[in-house]
Amino acid sequence: MGCFNGIVTLKGCSVTETPGSIYSMNSLPGISLNAFESVANTEQKNYLGVWNAINERAEARIKNAIISHLATRYKIKRVQRTVDTSNIEQQAIAEENIFKGIVINNGYDWTHNYVKSPFQTIQIDRIRFYKDATIAASSVTIQFFNYLTKEVLATKTLAVADLVTGWNEISINQTFTCSILGIGYNSFRIPSVEYDSNQLYSWWSESIYDVFGWNRCGWIKGFESSTSSKDGQLTWTEYIPNIQAVITIGCAYDAAMCNNRQTFAEAFWYLLGSEFMTEIMYSERMNFMTTVKREQAIELKAHYDIQYEEALKNALAGFLFQCDECLECNSLVQTFTQLP
Known about the structure:
With 340 residues, the chain is an alpha+beta fold. The protein has helices at 33-39, 47-71, 201-204, 253-259, 265-281, 294-317, and strands spanning 8-9, 23-24, 79-84, 90-93, 99-105, 120-131, 139-146, 152-159, 166-176, 180-186, 192-196, 219-225, 234-237, 239-241, 243-251. It is globular.
């Protein structure tokens, strides 16, 4: 999930303080920067390695707990539409020194960050990049970014020497929660091809009538920047240059959890405490912290687990949603006991 990082901070000499953090790990009993350093193994190397490890485990644990709870109350539409933009007639275009690519719009327009559901996602299974035989660039950096805020969400660098002439398939397997996702590259020294986005409409159209009277669930278009980077003025175009994609518009609990992460901040704080006690209990190091303090770690873990479960229960009690594009109406799951 990755969105809980920074909501709890570890104070220390070279730890970067995260703006917006709510709790400090150091304020929990039995936890200090020295304690982190004492349990670091050969792979973790130092306290920062331990900090990253417990954050990764805690994120996975709280995510599974939240999903398990919500799944008893709601039925989510995980896949709404999948589109592969391949097999469309294309034409060659000359190289330019501009940033351009493909844009997937799952919102209502091109200027507002308005989404149909807090659960909606854009999943990119894979992309294809076209290598022209006359390409002069040695590498291509493809950026996945929020089209409205220009925030880079992921990057993929391709070595031209590893590509074959024609379309090259690259696995991505990432999910994005922004309403409009851009996938672009700088076309300097890269002759390419383009295809008409209008040929995608028969695949993308869907009979969903919204409050604006539209009957499409989104658009797939090309885009161009006014400069050689994404930070220029972006304009959508009818033609999509050099990038094909396998796109799934779907729904996931991750987006709602990330957008409401402060609701779960206290639970995550105690969960990190529990995971750190696990590090002490199973550390390969032999020192005062991992031997003499081990019994204390066992007791503190039990305490933090209780606090975590109580905080999570309180947070989930107020986590209510209306039926929308992602949640099916009348979707509350009821459990009945079968009589003998």
